[in-house]
Here is the input.
Amino acid sequence: MSIPDLETLHALGPAQQPTYPDAGAVDAAVARLRTMPPLVFAGECDDLKTKLAAVSRGEAFLLQGGDCAETFAGVTADNVRNKLRVLLQMAVVLTYAASVPVVKVGRIAGQYAKPRSSDLETRDGVTLPAYRGDAVNGFDFTEAARIPDPQRLVDVYNSSAATLNLVRAFVTGGYADLRQVHTWNTDFVRESPVGQQYEAMANEIERALTFMQAIGADPDEFHRVDFHSSHEALVLEYEHAMTRIDSRTQTPYDVSGHFVWIGERTRQLDNAHVELLSHIRNPIGVKLGPTTTPDDALALAAKLNPHNEPGRLTFITRFGAGKIRDGLPHLVEKVQAAGVQVAWVCDPMHGNTFEASSGYKTRRFDDVIDEVQGFFDVHRSLGTWPGGIHVELTGDDVTECVGGGEELLEADLGGRYESVCDPRLNRVQSLELAFLVAEMLRKA
Ligand code: PEP
Ligand code: MN
Here is the structure.
């Protein structure tokens, strides 16, 4: 089985691609990437697919989260640990409070390319190409920084490798041991009300672990977790160069991450992203916004998962809190009626972004919760399984989303706004979300 070449894909006129000034430099970067070892193994992708099949059957819940846009400068030990830590905390809350297996996937080790609503950005009368993520150009608002540079794709590979190396060490090397459940609850979070709630839960878990140990049960699962990487498959050069034929099965896998998804702006049925991802064997996702018709969803499923393999396809809906209750039911209903195997996941972030009066892009914590609640309500009323959440978050104490228990105000946004793209939940807000979702799951 082979995949279409890059020229064929570009001939389809894909959206959201960088315009590189130097074709020779692009060829050189792609050639370099083709020689690099895989970041993930095909067998690991298959493991995740098996877990996502359980999600689609209603037997597990997906927690997918991380930055909107990773940055090269953000590849530090502290940063990677903090993101992993908040995801581990959220996962344990969901697992313990809702008694459901949680599939853990980071928006991490590859999430460097961003689709933009405009090709250009204007500040104080100066117009430059928009920032498209560190994979493409620089965030600095200068002409030089904003020129797309294909060497950055090699930097994406190296940054992803460094991140994944540390993540693998953390999740198997003792940091993710359930005995650490207390130590994940550090500094500013510990003092917050939700940190206290977490502390109480951690005490119960610790008692249970001690009991298990006393009776001689000490399974491997107490000491390590399965954690997977994911990112939006956006820049065709990168994803194509990282697609390899698996020696076990002779089929293509995109070995840049375990799970890749197609964004809301690049999911056109006859275009390059859908075409490329239709050929790879990884588990994949598609973002579905409020304009998605049932026919769109069915056509995507037919093209991307023609054998209706469970776990292969995840639909990540991102309607917005105001639209999900009216918009989602007919989509789910038709897809369900067609017998399509799919995991339904809620992205409660991208339909709820607005610009604060101060100019910062933000989201209200209450809107995020409201969309997740709407998602649960719709699925409950249709008898389908609300399979997971896909969120933008960070392990740090940033001020990017308003509301939550800390009651962050629009006026507070300037305090610590660090995202180079969309606003993320901070660690306290993320933990609050986990407890609220656990409550919804318990009722579902
Ligand atoms: C994103 O996940 O950061 C994103 C751009 O999402 P969407 O494609 O749903 O707009
Ligand atoms: Mn985003």
Notes: Residues 77-98 form the longest helix (22 residues). The mean pLDDT is 96.
